[in-house]
Amino acid sequence: MELSTEESQQAGQAPQRPRRHSRQVVLRHTVDGEEREVRIGGGAPISVQSMTTGKTHDVPGCLAEIRGLAEAGADVVRVAVPRPEDADALAAVVAGSPVPIVADIHFNYQYALQALEAGVAKVRINPGNIGKPEWEREVLRAAKDRGVPIRIGVNSGSLEKDILDKWGFPRPEALFESAMRHVEVCEREGFEDVVISVKHSDVYFMIQSYRLLAAETDYPLHLGVTESGSLKTGPIKSSIGIGSLLADGIGDTIRVSLAADSVNEVLVGHQILKSLRLGRPGVNVIACPTCGRLAGDLFSVVDEVEEAVAKRGFEKDLNVALMGCAVNGPGEAAGADLGVSLGRGRAHLFKHGKIVGTVDQGEIADAVIDLIERWDDEA
Ligand code: SF4
């Protein structure tokens, strides 16, 4: 697998984060008459996707959900198209959406054709249920005519029967074989605007499936752990699965699947990227877990600082360390851009390891925000 540090640096991301070389696909959409695009692969910033949970044919409800996801930071939103009325609603959903819309198609290739007609930015097909090869080819030809990318979205729960029979259960080789079979169909049609996903509900198998793909192809990869669970378990599974691959430079766009309000998918997705310093520039809050040496109420400080940072949406790429005592705190805080070390109701503030002030516990959050706001002037 070829890694390109240069590409990641060109994309304005943190250095020393080499990424797998991948081709690029472009998702085009129009907002208020203005043409926009989101690029996936080829060194583009890693995009965060989510999916609506309401009925697509309820256009006002669907658009309200899409706007909520976009406001939370979703770069791309997928909608389900299980019924004719959902396919009929796509044009209105596309027209009213602030972000590119992906149509999620299972079983009925006609809905994929209708989605392309409606102007969606990408179509996801499930190789396990798209049906006859000639139907798939018809979708590919229509997508090619319109310059719309297709995601080959393999899922461990819906593999083709012959592949499942061959491998016995959805092992990584089975997901890989399904994806590559359909990549070949695309390539025979001269269609290369392809994104691939091989989602598995087993995190370990998910990681192995993507590694097989990353070693074999240079198509951009959409990462996700399928059916990862509730807000309690899902972020952990997704962070392990998506995070392990991203740490290896694999992955071009991500979706965290949660059985919870989908705004959480977007927030967790950005947090995964931020944790690896792969996301958009922003303030990364680090906090000690506290222990018997704690000298104050660190949890409240962390809550206040996180809330204030989230509210302001800073685009300054800073690490802010919040530490609970004067034993390890100063040392840890010194390693961050901005540090706080608690001590008997007061706290020292550090900038690049140098003490720049002392404040009372109740003033810490305001002081941190003030330092972040003035950072450009003084850094
Ligand atoms: S910084 Fe201090 S309070 Fe926090 S975990 Fe370390 S020793 Fe404990």
TrEMBL record:
Superkingdom as given in the UniProt entry: Bacteria
Residues annotated as binding [4Fe-4S] cluster: 288, 291, 325, 332
Family to which the UniProt record says this protein belongs: Belongs to the IspG family.
Function: Converts 2C-methyl-D-erythritol 2,4-cyclodiphosphate (ME-2,4cPP) into 1-hydroxy-2-methyl-2-(E)-butenyl 4-diphosphate.
Cofactors required: [4Fe-4S] cluster
Family matches, as InterPro entries: Dihydropteroate_synth-like_sf (IPR011005), IspG_bac (IPR016425), IspG_bac-typ (IPR004588), IspG_C (IPR058579), IspG_TIM (IPR058578), NO2/SO3_Rdtase_4Fe4S_sf (IPR045854)
Protein name: 4-hydroxy-3-methylbut-2-en-1-yl diphosphate synthase (flavodoxin)
Originating species: Rubrivirga litoralis
Keyword Cell membrane: no
Keywords on record: 4Fe-4S, Iron, Iron-sulfur, Isoprene biosynthesis, Metal-binding, Oxidoreductase
Region (Disordered), start-end ranges: 1-24
Gene: ispG
UniProt domain IspG TIM-barrel: residue ranges: 37-269
Location of the IspG C-terminal domain: 284-373
Presence of the UniProt keyword Lipid metabolism in the record: no
Enzymatic reactions: (2E)-4-hydroxy-3-methylbut-2-enyl diphosphate + oxidized [flavodoxin] + H2O + 2 H(+) = 2-C-methyl-D-erythritol 2,4-cyclic diphosphate + reduced [flavodoxin]
Cofactor binding annotation: Binds 1 [4Fe-4S] cluster.
Pathway entry: Isoprenoid biosynthesis; isopentenyl diphosphate biosynthesis via DXP pathway; isopentenyl diphosphate from 1-deoxy-D-xylulose 5-phosphate: step 5/6
Single annotated GO MF: 4-hydroxy-3-methylbut-2-en-1-yl diphosphate synthase activity (ferredoxin)
